[in-house]
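Replying to the earlier thread about multi-chain prediction with a worked example.

Input:
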Amino acid sequence: MIIQTNSQQFAARVQNVPASFIREILKVATDPNIVSFAGGLPSPALFPAEALGESAKRVFSKMGGQALQYSSTEGYLPLREYIAERYRRRFKLNISAEQILITNGSQQAVDLIGKIFIDPGDNVMLERPSYLGALQCFSMFQPVFKEVNLEHDGIDTAELEDLLNETSVKLFYCIPNFQNPTGVQYSLEKRKMAALILRRHRTIVIEDDPYGEITFDKHHMPPLYSFYPEKTIMLGSFSKIIAPGLRLGWMVANREIIKKATVMKQASDLQSGNLSQYILYDFLQNNSLDRHVENLITAYKEKRTTMMGCLQNYFPESVKFTRSRGGMFTWLTLPEGNTARELLQAALKEKIIFVPGDSFYASDPDYRTLRLNYSNVDEPVMRAAMYKLSRLII
Amino acid sequence: MIIQTNSQQFAARVQNVPASFIREILKVATDPNIVSFAGGLPSPALFPAEALGESAKRVFSKMGGQALQYSSTEGYLPLREYIAERYRRRFKLNISAEQILITNGSQQAVDLIGKIFIDPGDNVMLERPSYLGALQCFSMFQPVFKEVNLEHDGIDTAELEDLLNETSVKLFYCIPNFQNPTGVQYSLEKRKMAALILRRHRTIVIEDDPYGEITFDKHHMPPLYSFYPEKTIMLGSFSKIIAPGLRLGWMVANREIIKKATVMKQASDLQSGNLSQYILYDFLQNNSLDRHVENLITAYKEKRTTMMGCLQNYFPESVKFTRSRGGMFTWLTLPEGNTARELLQAALKEKIIFVPGDSFYASDPDYRTLRLNYSNVDEPVMRAAMYKLSRLII
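Result:
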């Protein structure tokens, strides 16, 4: 039987949501011989699988009934307290558990914020380029995107100011630490300046921070939140520092926003997985997250250094790239005459993949850009693949 | 510091979403001495905690890396194949894994469907009364609700036909098996008739079926889907038959709808928890779900019978109730002069809670109705509490 649906019955918002080119690439990339600089996958070799397994065992033996039952939409209270305490310790931030909502990774937090704040036609401001998942998610709420250029040390604050003077912006989404896709980290000055400007315009800020813990030089920058707590919503995730398969992240905001977000979360999926939350919390109680993160940093830093070495040594000088000081990505701008999509076609023949940069722009994409992920490729393989890739540049 | 947010900055859709009165009650009900007929909690004593614990152990030792990593938005393929196979076996339905999307319980499926289909102002048709979680979820998309009365054997099909002739309806949400809140099951005739009418009007149907497996009389009715597969979206959940803490459900639909829903799911939270999916699939491979469901049926049937006995023996004849043949709920209509909210006030003093029925109506609520859940109360306790409750009726 051929099943046909009348496409017109889909809602208007559906027309606006682009499928993720990255996810499409990842689907193609099931060939185990492919070297993938695409995706943002953490290295599975670094997952604390054994310790999480021990935690699962304890949870099932001690509190299986509770962990398997429904619970509150807000999330497991001890886990929220742990997160609050970590902010206190890392940045002397005074955040209470009531200001934290557990979400399915930080992606869901973006969705909930969209639901709470964005009316069709609202201006939503993004870094240029920005995280594709956020672009995709916001698109569902039919906003008008405004972009502010990202420089090597954060957004162009003059442009930010001009834009905010010129038009009313509902919210600004940013990733100040090791941005996806560019790897850029905001300097302290840019953080202060941006917060000042945004505060003056009373703009809601979404500070997405999945990579901040993975800082290679031990120089942890205070979040934008610390300069503008009234209207900054800070997102965090355990996907990059523990494991994505737990599907757990969180949102920090003032109580009024958290209350609204909780109602939205309840309507969206009742709550995040209770079992995952219990396993994660047990892990955090019985293991040092600091030590685990140290191991991640050591491993990713080495991979970063290898990739930077390859870019320096193999690639023509005309290729510009981010000297990433944390996170999982670097960002290339190819010389005139190249496009990243053409490079990808050629690279695919060599069984190498990456993500062309154009999908990360809300408008007027730069087709010469591309994103390279270094967290999930072993070093000899990386060297060989990077060499091959460099030869494909015109 | 006092943190204040300008409420006007919230989106228009936020104004429409009612907080769940049930969840609010559940929050109050932390006193362990409270007897709760509120909520829809499965009995934790019936969770297969030990077997799931064994599954977790196997998953961590054999495939921890995979289970902890990101994976496809569609969900774990073997799990989707298992679900498809179960439909084949139970109802001879020919459903492929490509027609199945794994979601965070069926609640998220309702959200994704809202996102895909509902434009502000669209007519969304509900049973009267209907599941509060669906009401809440749809509200976010600013539809106009239309209600069709529920009778003892399913919706009033004459009313359904009149309504569809009168106005254009985007979608119809229903729970044909042991509905939440009423416990009503559609008869075979009503299923066929409803499908015929809905098909004639090309109305999209959401057939939510979290309770269908828990049929006390072994008489499993074919789903509406089997009479109208083109535009019926069937939702299922592991929350009631295995455990809510896994937070896993699914959506069955034609490929075009699943494709759109997958893009929406990706934008909403990338994917459901991979670890949960692996643990669940291992459980399903190593245990008989049929046998487990048999145990649930035996236990819940006994509880149902006890509750029906109490209603029959303790309550005045003027109290009407559903003789539930499956699921977890019965639905009472109190005699004139009572309201369920007043009854709840009195019951709270006796440390008994339930959900007044008014929250389950999209409009013009019947204040004499209430929902009783029998799945999570032990029998001697149930008897005592039901007796007390009966004495409170005027």
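Residues 1-6 of chain A have pLDDT under 50 and may be disordered.

Feel free to reuse this layout for your own posts.
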